[in-house]
Amino acid sequence: MDNVLLINASTRGSASIGLRLASELLDCIRQRHAQATVTLRDLAAEPLAPLSAGYATALTRLTPAHDPVFASSEALVGELERCDLLLIATPMHNFTVPAVLKLWIDHVLRINRTFIAGPDGKVGLLVDRPVYVIVSSGGFHRGARARQPDFLSAYLRHVLGTLGLQNVHFVYLEGLAINEQAVLAATTQARLQLAGHPLFGDLVTPA
Ligand SMILES: Cc1cc2nc3c(=O)[nH]c(=O)nc-3n(C[C@H](O)[C@H](O)[C@H](O)COP(=O)(O)O)c2cc1C
């Protein structure tokens, strides 16, 4: 394990419950892989450039572009290619991914760079590697308590699969807007789930 990439899409900085859990996962990785380099791509603290006309034109014409957004896209794809492990901490915003994460997707899911469109559909060009997605939400979207649809998980799984990343694990922190007890219940459940994975065996779990 040499390179870990953490993508954060929460706007809440150090108050983010998802980002806090992701930081604990990084601590676990550092315990076993002291040499690992961690790259934090904080999409909220350092917003990506909006898509430009030059970028969109280059994509549709399949010509190389001398466009700053193309350069940014290339840098973000490079980050992805270099990592051995991808962590994504994202809130649910209006039933799906936050706008900042959608913009990141538009930068990295690029035809003839990270996927090709063949006769049977799109095929990812990235080498597969483990991906952990921490999804935090104010309410519930799974099980008996669900009162809203989840358009985030299937969409993000499909995006990652189109990049070539199939080894994807979703971890949910639900009901975070209810009260402190609900936050504790959600984080406890997530910790127990993650501690079952070899990478995160050192995660502190409730007795
Ligand atoms: C613009 C916006 C839209 C939101 N939409 C949803 C939603 O559709 N469903 C939901 O359960 N929570 C929704 N929330 C609540 C956030 O998901 C919740 O505050 C977030 O998960 C907190 O995560 P964090 O502590 O990791 O930042 C929304 C919050 C914001 C700011």
TrEMBL record:
Q: Which reaction does it catalyse?
A: 2 a quinone + NADH + H(+) = 2 a 1,4-benzosemiquinone + NAD(+); N,N-dimethyl-1,4-phenylenediamine + anthranilate + 2 NAD(+) = 2-(4-dimethylaminophenyl)diazenylbenzoate + 2 NADH + 2 H(+)
Cofactor binding remark: Binds 1 FMN per subunit.
Flavodoxin-like fold domain location, by residue?
3-193
Q: Which GO terms describe its molecular function?
A: electron transfer activity; FMN binding; oxidoreductase activity, acting on NAD(P)H as acceptor; oxidoreductase activity, acting on NAD(P)H, quinone or similar compound as acceptor
Please name the InterPro entries in this protein's record: Flavodoxin_fold, Flavoprotein-like_sf, FMN-dep_NADH:Q_OxRdtase_AzoR1, NADH:quinone_OxRdtase_FMN_depd
Q: Which UniProt keywords apply?
A: Flavoprotein, FMN, NAD, Oxidoreductase
Record has Aminoacyl-tRNA synthetase as a keyword: no
Cofactors demanded by this protein: FMN
- Gene3D superfamilies membership: 3.40.50.360
Source organism, top-level taxon? Bacteria
Q: Which EC number(s) does UniProt give?
A: 1.6.5.-, 1.7.1.17
Positions contributing to FMN binding: 10, 136-139
One short Pfam name that applies is Flavodoxin_2
Q: Which family does it belong to?
A: Belongs to the azoreductase type 1 family.
Assembly mode = Homodimer.
**Biological function:** Quinone reductase that provides resistance to thiol-specific stress caused by electrophilic quinones. Also exhibits azoreductase activity. Catalyzes the reductive cleavage of the azo bond in aromatic azo compounds to the corresponding amines.
Q: What is this protein called?
A: FMN dependent NADH:quinone oxidoreductase
Q: Which organism is it from?
A: Pseudomonas wadenswilerensis
